[in-house]
Amino acid sequence: MKKTSLVFILFSILGGIFAYQNFFLNKDIKTNDGLLPVKTEANAIYVADQKPGLFITINMINLNKNGYAVIYEDNQGGFGRIIGGTKLLPKGESMGISANLVRPVSDGETLFAVIHEDSGDGIFSPNLDTPLLDDEGNIVFTIFYTDQDVSNIENLKTKFDQPLKGCIVTGCSGQICSDEEVITTCEFLPEYSCYKTARCERQSDGQCGWTETAELKSCLN
Asked: Where are the domains of the chain?
């Protein structure tokens, strides 16, 4: 088992999250129900509502220094125990990052994704890697929910205050869905014509791709 996972599990068992209680109580924490505006500057994070499971997809995170996206349980509207997080993330924007959990989350839970800085060793430690703050001194976080019937694609498309760069159909035969022009050879395959019935749009991992329709599935078969 990786050292990072051991740190998360040990911290969860010992209830070390309460070491942060005074820190959180003395900061202006803004609850936003998952509608945190996507900023062009660091720091910012967005997580769409998720299906239950053992991992969380961080749709977008922007950092002004190396850090982590850390997942917290809800405790009466505030931060509860840490139940998971990402690997060390580099400065800048990352999309479609997986955060592993120490327990499966069930349907109907409220969770927080909080940005933490890295103290320099590349291993998450709750006592050393504190939450990053915005220019006004607020903890940068977002709220999201677990829902068995959630459509992450729809949430990704509608909850960004500033839309992601649009997806376009590209390639010589219109066979590629991307967020930028792609140059390909002009060899035509019969299945390429099937993609005229598909939707080129942003997927749940934040990348452009084809959304399968009944017509596309029938055509490819």
From this structure: 3-151, 168-220
Question: Residue 63: which of 121, 140, 125, 122 has the closest Cα?
Answer: 140
Helix (H) or strand (E) holding 177: strand 176-178
* Whether domain 3-151 has CATH 2.60.40: yes
Q: Determine the residue type at 115.
A: I
Question: Residues 6 or more apart from 122 whose CB is under 8 A from it?
Answer: 66, 88
**Nearest Cα residue to 31 out of 76, 81, 64:** 76
142-153 pLDDT, tens digit per residue, is: 999 999 887 654
- For 76-110, the pLDDT digits (tens) are 889 999 999 999 999 888 888 999 999 999 999 99
